[in-house]
Inverse folding.
């Protein structure tokens, strides 16, 4: 899953991404995963596990760049009961 994310990461210098870039990465990565799921012969249990892992990676990516995955706000301005 890490490879799936870094492939679509527009920056190689480790600079902090904007929420627009994060959302684009999210969308592209999600699309890649859906397409892969369609051709994959894995069982649904496996697929669910992979989706969970992918979502955890996305949450981590958002957090690393200072944004909340739940509400898309800066962590300091998060409106969730707890930043996701
Ligand atoms: Zn939030």
């Amino acid at each position: 899953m890490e490879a799936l994310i870094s492939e679509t990461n527009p920056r190689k210098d480790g600079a902090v991404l904007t929420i627009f870039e994060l959302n684009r990465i999210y969308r592209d990565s999600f699309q890649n995963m859906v397409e892969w799921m369609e051709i994959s012969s894995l069982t649904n249990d496996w697929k669910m596990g992979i989706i969970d892992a992918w979502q955890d990676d996305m949450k981590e990516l958002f957090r690393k760049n200072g944004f909340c995955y739940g509400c898309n706000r800066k962590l300091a301005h998060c409106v969730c009961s707890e930043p996701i």
About this structure: The pocket of zinc ion is lined by residues 68, 70-71, 73, 78-80, 83-84 (CB under 6 Å). The chain has a mean pLDDT of 87. The chain is about 60% helix and 0% strand.
